[in-house]
Amino acid sequence: MLKLKPFYCFFILLIASCQSSTTKINYLDNFTAFIDELEFQKKSNSKINWKEKSDSLDLFIKRKDKFRLSLNDEQSIATLIDKFNNLKEVNSNSEMNVNFYFENSLSMNGYLSGKNFKQVMHRIYGNLGAYTVNPFFVNTKEYPQDDVLNKIDNSNIKEGDVGNSDHLFIFSNAIENAKENNLSIVVTDGIYSVKDGDVDIVSIDIETAFKHALTKNGIETVVLKLSSEFNGQYYQEASCPNKKKGGITINQQDRPYYVMLFGNSQSIDKALNEITVIDELPGFEEQARFFLTKNLKANYTILTTGDEKHGTFKASKKGSDLIEEIEDVKKFERPGFNGTPKSENYLQFGVAIDYSSISLPNTYKEAVKNYWVDDQLGYTVTSVSNVADMDKSSKTFKEVQHINDKNKTNFTHVITVKADKNLYGNLNIQLQNNLPAWIENTGVNDDCDIIDDVSHTFAFDQLMIGISKAYQKVNNNSQYLDINLKIKP
C-alpha cells in the first residue's frame, strides 16, 4: 500500500482548503451582488418578480450549509437576508397618490367640446375616485385646481401663460412628482412649441431633461395616442407663409392628442388596469412604453414539437423541458417532382419566451421588425405569436401549456425562426429598443397645411425621440434583452 509523505498530505489539504475558501468567497460575493441588484431595481422602480427573487434567496440560504462559515460570515448573511426582507416590504402597500396635469394652453381649447375628448376626461377622472388626487392646469408653470373636471366641461381653463407651453417643465415636473408609488398623468396636444419652427433642437432638449430626471427618479413613461373632434383655433408652429398670430380656424373629426403616464412599474400597471383602461377610452389609437432595462431577463426555451417545427433535431441535454441547445439538426426537405430539385429545403422551429415581466405592448413584442438576428448564421425571425391568441387545439398551444404546467413557467409568446443555410453555431436574437413606427408616422415638421391633416402632430416624433434616447442612454444599451441559442449538427 502506497504511503503518502506528510508534506504531500499537507499539500493536498492546503489545495482543498484554498479551493473551499475561494468557493466560499464566491458564494458571499454572489449573494451580495444579488442583494445589490435588488436594491438597484427597487431604486429604479423596476418591476420585480418577488416569487422568483424569493426562490433565489432560498437557494442562497440552503447553500450556506456547504461552507465553514465564521461568525462574521454568519452575521453578513443575516444582514443580507434582512436587507432582502426590508426591500420586499418597503412601500409595497403604500398608497398611490395621483398628480393630474391638464395642459391648458390655447391650443387645447378646440378639443373641449369634442365628444371623445369629454368622455375620456370623465372616464379617467372618474376612475380616480379611489385615490388622493392633486389636479393642476399646467403650461409654463403649474396651477392647482379645486374642480378641474367641471372647468374642463365648461371650457373654463384659462389660467397662467396660456399662450405658451413648456414641455420641458411639464414632463420634468411630472417625473419629479412621480416618486415612490405616486403617479403623474399629463393630458396634452403634444405640440412642441419652438421658435420659428426650429425642430432640430427638440429631441436634444427633451433628451437632456429626461436624462437628468431619470438619474434622480428611475420611472417609466407611457404614451397613449387618442383622437377626438377639434373645433377651434390652431396655432401653427412652422414658418408658414401668411402665418396668423391668432391662429387659423379648423374643424376636424379626428385630431390627435395624448395622455402620458409617469410612475414606477407597479403604478403604471395599476393605471392601465384601473384608470386609463384602453378599452374604455373612445378614440384610442396607439400606445408606447419606455422604461429602464438594467438586468432585464426573460426565460425562453426551444420547442421540440409544435406547428412551427420543420426539420429534425433533439435537445442536447436530456431530462429538461427548458432547452437552449439542440443537436442532430437537419433541414426539412420536400422531394421534387419528376426529378426536379428538392423544394422547401429549410429548418424552422419555435422559441417559447416569457414576456410577462417585459412592460411593452403586445403589438411591440409581436412586430418582427423589432427583432435583430446575428447574421453570422442564416436565421431570420418570421413571426411572433401570442400564446393566448393561439388555437387551443394546436400542437404549439398544447406543448407550451404542457411545459408551463410541468415546470411552473409562464411562456407567453412563441418566436419562429427559419434558415435555409448556415444552420450551425451560436444563434443570438435581440429584442431591440426601437422607437415604435406609429411615433415616427405621427410627427411632422411642417404644419402649414394642417387644415386638411388629421394624422400628424407638429414635432411629436422629435419629442418622443428625445424621451427614447434618454432611456437608452441611462440603460446604456439599445436592446431590451438577448436570446442565446446553440444549434449543432
Structure in a nutshell:
This protein is an alpha+beta fold and 489 residues long. The chain has helices at residues 6-43, 50-63, 71-89, 115-126, 148-153, 167-176, 202-216, 265-274, 362-365, 395-407, 437-442, 460-475, and strands spanning 97-103, 132-138, 142-144, 183-188, 220-234, 248-263, 284-290, 300-302, 312-315, 325-330, 332-334, 343-353, 371-373, 380-386, 413-419, 425-432, 443-444, 457-458, 479-487.
Strand order of the largest sheet: 3-2-1-4-6-5-7
- Alpha-beta content class: alpha+beta
Sheet having the most strands: 7 strands, mixed
Unreliable spans are: 1-18
Radius of gyration: 28 Å
Please indicate the percent range of residues in DSSP E strands (runs of 2 or more).
25-35%
- Give the overall silhouette: globular
Report how far apart the termini are.
48 Å
Average predicted local confidence, pLDDT: 88
Fraction of residues in helix: 25-40%
| Structural domains: how many | 3
What's the number of helices? 12
How many strand segments?
Answer: 19
Which features does this protein show?
five-stranded antiparallel sheet; disordered N terminus; seven-stranded mixed sheet; 3 domains; 12 helices; alpha+beta; globular; 489 residues
Description:
- By secondary structure, this protein is an alpha+beta fold.
- The chain folds into three domains: 11-86; 97-293 and 435-475, no CATH class; 300-432, no CATH class.
- The chain has twelve helices and 19 strands.
- It has helices spanning 6-43, 50-63, 71-89, 115-126, 148-153, 167-176, 202-216, 265-274, 362-365, 395-407, 437-442, 460-475, and strands at 97-103, 132-138, 142-144, 183-188, 220-234, 248-263, 284-290, 300-302, 312-315, 325-330, 332-334, 343-353, 371-373, 380-386, 413-419, 425-432, 443-444, 457-458, 479-487.
- The strands form four sheets. Strands 3-2-1-4-6-5-7 form a seven-stranded mixed sheet. Strands 8, 11, 12, 14 and 15 form a five-stranded antiparallel sheet that branches. Strands 9-10-19-16-13 form a five-stranded mixed sheet, with no helix packed on it.
- Helix 6 runs parallel beside helix 7 and helix 7 crosses helix 12 (460-475).
- It starts with 5 loop residues before the first helix and ends with a strand.
- 34% of the residues are buried.
- The model is unreliable at 1-18 (pLDDT under 50).
